[in-house]
Design goal:
- The protein has one domain (5-304).
- It has 309 residues and is mostly helical.
- It is 81% helix and 0% strand.
- The chain has 12 helices and no strands.
Length: 309
C-alpha cells in the first residue's frame, strides 16, 4: 500500500510531538533520578520503541484496522492529534495520543459505519478506566515489596540494584509505548511496515532534541520518590498498558504511570504527589478522547462524508 506525501509529512510531524510529549515519560524516571544523561536516556528509549513496535505493534494496529477509515479522512485524523499535542506540549501537560487518535477514529467510524461500534467502544472505556486504577494498586503493592527486600541490605547493593532495575524498567516502558501507541499510530492510517522507521525517527527527534524541559517537568514527580518509587511507578504503569496491548486495545501510558506515581506516593509519602499535575493529567485523560471524537465527527460529516443521511 502506498502513502501520499501529505499523510507521510503529517505522520512524521505527529511522531515528533509524540516524542516530546509522551516519550519524555519514559526518560523522566532515569533522568530525574540522575542515573542517565538526557541523550543516553533518549537512545535507550529509541531502542525500546523500535523493539516494541516491531514485536507487538501489530496488535493495536489490528484492532484499529478492523474498521478502516476512508482514505479521504487520513489528513483529518492526523491533524487532530497534531494540533492538540502541540497545544498540550506548549503548556507542559502530558496528553494521551492513544485517547486522541482513538477518539478521532471513533468519530469517523461512527459516520462511515452508520453507528458507533459499541463492542469496541465498551472495551475502550473499560480499559481506559481500569489501567490507571490498576496501576495505583499494583504500584502500592510493588513499592511495599521492594522496600521490604531492600530493608537491611547494604547501600552499595541497593545502589547497584536500583541502577540496573531502573535501566531495565525504562527500556520496558519504552517497549510498551512502542508496542501500543506506535502500533496505533500506524493503524489509524493503515501504514505499511516500511513507514515504521520514519515514525520511530520522528519520536526520537522529539524525545532527544526537543523535550529536555518537558522531561524535567515530568521528572519532578519522580525525583522526590526515590529509586524504589520510580521503579514501582514505571513497572506498574507499563505492565497495565502491556496487558491492554495483549487484547489489542490502545491505552495511555502517561495516565497509567501517573497512576503508579500516586500508588507509590500513598504508601511512602503522600506529600510527594504533585496534585496540580494529577489534576492536569486526569482532566486531559477524561477529555482527550471526547475532544478527538468531536473534532473528527463534525468536520468529517460536514465536508468529507459521502453519506447522504
Amino acid at each position: 500500500m502506498g502513502m501520499n506525501i501529505a499523510t507521510l509529512v503529517l505522520l512524521f510531524s505527529v511522531s515528533i510531538l509524540f516524542g516530546i510529549n509522551n516519550g519524555s515519560v519514559c526518560q523522566a524516571g532515569i533522568v530525574g533520578s540522575g542515573l542517565f544523561t538526557f541523550k543516553r536516556a533518549s537512545l535507550l528509549v529509541g531502542l525500546g520503541l523500535l523493539l516494541g513496535s516491531l514485536v507487538e505493534g501489530w496488535k493495536t494496529k489490528e484492532f484499529i484496522t478492523t474498521y478502516e477509515i476512508p482514505a479521504n479522512a487520513e489528513i483529518l485524523i492526523l491533524t487532530i492529534p497534531l494540533f492538540l499535542l502541540l497545544i498540550s506540549t506548549i503548556y507542559g501537560i502530558p496528553m494521551s495520543i492513544a485517547h486522541l487518535l482513538t477518539g478521532a477514529w471513533l468519530g469517523i467510524i461512527m459516520i462511515d459505519a452508520g453507528s458507533i461500534i459499541f463492542n469496541a467502544l465498551i472495551v475502550l472505556i473499560i480499559v481506559w478506566v481500569a489501567t490507571p486504577i490498576a496501576a495505583i494498586f499494583l504500584s502500592s503493592l510493588l513499592y511495599v515489596i521492594l522496600r521490604k527486600i531492600a530493608y537491611k541490605r547494604r547501600l552499595s547493593t541497593i545502589a547497584s540494584f536500583n541502577r540496573i532495575a531502573l535501566t531495565i524498567s525504562s527500556l520496558y516502558t519504552s517497549y510498551v509505548l512502542g508496542s501500543n501507541n506506535i502500533g496505533l499510530l500506524m493503524g489509524v492510517v493503515n501504514a505499511p511496515l516500511y513507514i515504521l522507521p520514519t515514525i520511530v525517527l520522528g519520536v526520537l527527534i522529539g524525545s532527544m532534541f526537543m523535550s529536555p524541559k518537558f522531561t524535567k517537568a515530568i521528572g519532578e514527580d519522580f525525583v522526590g520518590m526515590g529509586p524504589l518509587g520510580v521503579l514501582s511507578s514505571l513497572i506498574s504503569g507499563s505492565f497495565t498498558v502491556w496487558l491492554a496491548t495483549q487484547i489489542g486495545c490502545p491505552a495511555s501510558l502517561t495516565n497509567s504511570i501517573m497512576g503508579g506515581i500516586i500508588g507509590a506516593g500513598l504508601v511512602s509519602n503522600p506529600s510527594i504527589v504533585n496534585m496540580r499535575k494529577l489534576y492536569q493529567v486526569t482532566l486531559s485523560w477524561a477529555l482527550a478522547g471526547l475532544i478527538g471524537f468531536l473534532l473528527s465527527y463534525f468536520p468529517y460529516i460536514l465536508f468529507l462524508s459521502t453519506k447522504t443521511s
